[in-house]
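Structure request: Maspardin, Sesamum indicum.
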Amino acid sequence: MRYLVLWGSKESILILNQVLRSGTADVYYKQIMSLSMKGYRVISVDIPRVWNHQEWIQAFEKFLDAIDVHHIHLYGTSLGGFLAQLFAQHRPRRVKSLVLSNTFLETNSFAAAMPWAPFVGWTPSFLLKRYVLTGIRDGPHEPFIADSVDFVVAQVETLSRDDLASRLSLTVDAASVGPLLLSDSLITIMDTNDFCAIPQQLKDQVTERYPGARQAYLKSGGDFPFLSRPDEVNLHLQLHLRRVGVDARQDMVPGVPKNDAGGSSSNQNDEQGGTDDAQDDRTDCGSPRNGSGPPLVPDGPDSGNSQNQHLSNAYLSISREHLVHLMLLAVMENEQAILASKAMLHFTCEYVILDLLRTYLSSLYINLEV
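Returned structure:
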């Protein structure tokens, strides 16, 4: 599961990282990059390795206590949205608002479709991955949706057998969401109108349960709109946060000095007021403006005010942050290329071995005939 932590030491927004059994905390990197640069504190968290919903609620609460976060805003997709509702039901004082996307209210339909659920703990890893990947729609996609599917499939390959078994257990563990103390006005439902792994009937049940919730529908986006439609998702998240009273803080933007926001306007006034004096004193730039004031800054083509210097440093720091993110993306793409190369090498080796075996058996058959 993943979550975005907003400004304020005790208030957070959490993105649950559970896209119906698949994905890791990396799949929300576009929301983290966008919202953190706008002044929100953002954190993304993986679902712990637990085997029922009560264990998950207790583990998640212990995590919040460990990072000293009391009030949270949850954004959950698919299984993550279901878990977010359960946490809001059992820990109502901690959840301040919800953003639900392509989610459901009960797990009975998933349990009925998976009769081998009691044996999921003993199922081999490759069978679990195959079952998870069958839930992702196969076929031609728009380019941005195809890229999101490729990214999530690569994430599934990194999950261990126990991680997959744990998530499938949470999907089929019998449970349903009861009444919430949270007002419908503090809930936003953000669904996609095209194909989705969650049946439309289950998504309609969520809409009927919260009639007063704000509805934000995306024309397309597939199962992973946070990857395929990040700009729209980020916009709806910001609108939701503003509606529930959470504002961004510029001092939370990476690279911007915390004391810079309040001093920029005063610096401008001081420098504008001292322009005439500076023109009179150009012949003696080292002399003070008055008896107790500091020496004037030399006036020339390379001189600049303190505000521009601070902004330059801030932009430089932000550029470095972007560079780091781009490097991380390049690393992830490189890992995907390595996985593809390994798969191709494995296929080639199998083909060569089978061809050699066929040749060997053919020679044996010829020798036997002779």
